[in-house]
Amino acid sequence: MIILGIIMLIIVLGAMCWLLFNLAVFALPLFAAVSVGLATTDTGAGPIGAIFLGLLAGIATLTAGQMVFTLVPSTLVRVAVAGLFAIPAAIAGYHATHGLAALAIPAEGWRQAFALFGAGAISLTALARLALPRGAGFRATPSDARLSGQ
Question: Which residues cross the membrane (predicted)?
């Protein structure tokens, strides 16, 4: 029974890490959605209006970030947009990794080291997910070969 518990714990921690990596790019849109939702609640719009406007703000933030990152040729603007998405992801990754490390690592120095490594890895994941469109892979397709003249 103890072995089953350990196996289940490893599976659950792995699933949490997988979710964290998959949702890292959405840290900034989530922050925008929650901020707009709370601000609309303070103005008296009610919960339905707050939820609607929060969802709208989150979707608009994600869409605008991806469009600016893919359509604007200026490197400086792309770096700024990438930083806007990567910094909240790094902060969320730091705190999530620190919380997971606190479950198994007694020394605070090692917890901080793992948390900093997790923050870097998750921010790089957010950058990669922002830079690569959905379904993009690293293999060449026949249309790529035609475009390059091969």
Answer: 7-32, 44-64, 76-94, 114-132
This prediction's pTM: 0.69
Distance, first Cα to last Cα, the chain: 60
Report which DSSP code applies to 25: G
Between the CA of residue 149 and those of 22, 138, 142, what are the distances in Å?
36, 19, 11
Judge whether residue 142 has pLDDT over 80.
no
Residues 6+ apart with CB under 8 A from 139: none
C-alpha dist (Å) from residue 48 to 32, 33, 35, 54, 92? 17, 13, 15, 10, 27
